[in-house]
């Protein structure tokens, strides 16, 4: 096995700070992992590009994000975060219960992402006025189980990156509830002050 460390290559659509890939990207930034970016236009060229990536072994499903990391190719954005969390240590909760909570909230996020994508082109009132408020109120129940600002209190875990992205992405698409629960406002504000994150979002509005 080749144990030589290579720089990470992050493959994703060229859609700025939107989407699943950005969750992984933010995590890499936070962890200080240097990454080379391969961004692909999200237009009529994508189907062919997707086929090329499949042929190159970058993605088996034809979807992205895909991350080349230390000789492995990682796809599926939440399992990718879990892999990186285990590799780096931390980011995943300590006890069996904490790990469960982090996994459970990430599952709730995955359900949110499905709905968000389905509403990206045509935002329904059902999504904006019912689903999104329901989602954030549900998250707030989890984010008040500990003292905050992060899901498990003072320690950030991989799921916080996903939850931050849901808040950010709903903000960008005009579907974030005006009355976001206080625990989530506190979480977002603290998250945005993390040193590597603050620097990154200052340069990438
Ligand atoms: N289960 C995958 C889903 C990946 C996915 O659907 N990616 C979208 C972008 S966020 C994509 O590649 N869309 C282009 C396509 O479907 O061809 C994950 O969690 O990473």
From TrEMBL:
Domain GST N-terminal: residue ranges: 8-92
Cited Gene3D superfamilies: 1.20.1050.10, Glutaredoxin
GO molecular function, one term: glutathione transferase activity
Pfam family, one: GST_C_3
GO process terms (BP): glutathione metabolic process
Domain GST C-terminal: 95-205
PROSITE patterns: GST_CTER (PS50405), GST_NTER (PS50404)
UniProt-listed PANTHER family: GLUTATHIONE S-TRANSFERASE
Protein name in UniProt: Glutathione S-transferase
Record organism: Pochonia chlamydosporia 170
Lineage, top ranks: Eukaryota, Fungi, Dikarya, Ascomycota, Pezizomycotina
